[in-house]
Amino acid sequence: MSTTTDRETSLDGLRHRIDELDSQLHALLMERAQVGAGIAAARLASGAESVVFQPDREADLMRHLVERHEGVLPLATVEHLWRELISASLRLQGDFQLHLDGSADLLGMLDLARFHFGFSCELVPGADAADVVGSVAASDGDLGLIALQDRADLPWWRGLSTDGAEVIARLPFLVLDERPADMPALVISRSVAETVKRDTLVFDARWTGVLPGNLMNEGLEVVSFHRSASGVDALLAVSAHLSEDEIFKACADAGAEPDVLRLVGGYSAPIDVEGDADDDFDAAASEGLTE
């Protein structure tokens, strides 16, 4: 039978082990930061003038995180810790601001911004999504965060382009039931390097007159859309394996080719850890095209 002294001795041993692990973690964090500072110095020496965002590299880090995760600590907690580390490493390369969509729910937008980009990133509120696009396009290396709604008040994505501000990521990247900071959103930045790998491409598509039917049946996701008296504008997410000709054909098979089809970015496909959480959103958007 264990005594109070035995239990206290055991607890002291566990607390001592935690102290040891904390010390090791801190040393590893400092080593990681030092390597990040070396990358920043090398970029500066090469003449780089702004922060380089590598959304595909970050996506790979998150995929490896999911693959190796086990134990009692929630995955969302570990994700947030890694996101804070990644953001801190980016800030070693230079300062950047995060422009927020002012038309979205403020608390949801702040939660998402802090969860994904950390507490040291400077947040700049914008009037609406179009304002965020303009601010990022005019910056040297800022980011923008725009909330996704199935039916948009305005086709703000018309201001995107592959030589201005473009889509580089979709959040949340890890789709979990009852996760914190779960507002659907897109991240935009100035154009990223052509070497960045993207699973999904994003297009500005516009129709007048005859409208397509259910694009989902043709493998095209309606990320957001805006209806007007003359037709509809849609932000489409499409597999990077499809050519523009194949996209036009898929639209034609759904009922109508678009009058405009313009590439405006792309992103690494989010990981749906526990199921198909976006089905309801996709269905609502597709049905809304032909209402």
Automatic annotation (TrEMBL):
<dbReference type="InterPro" id="IPR002701">
    <property type="entry name" value="CM_II_prokaryot"/>
</dbReference>
<dbReference type="Pfam" id="PF01817">
    <property type="entry name" value="CM_2"/>
</dbReference>
<feature type="domain" description="Chorismate mutase">
    <location>
        <begin position="5"/>
        <end position="97"/>
    </location>
</feature>
<protein>
    <recommendedName>
        <fullName>chorismate mutase</fullName>
        <ecNumber>5.4.99.5</ecNumber>
    </recommendedName>
</protein>
<dbReference type="InterPro" id="IPR036979">
    <property type="entry name" value="CM_dom_sf"/>
</dbReference>
<dbReference type="GO" id="GO:0004106">
    <property type="term" value="F:chorismate mutase activity"/>
</dbReference>
<dbReference type="InterPro" id="IPR036263">
    <property type="entry name" value="Chorismate_II_sf"/>
</dbReference>
<dbReference type="GO" id="GO:0046417">
    <property type="term" value="P:chorismate metabolic process"/>
</dbReference>
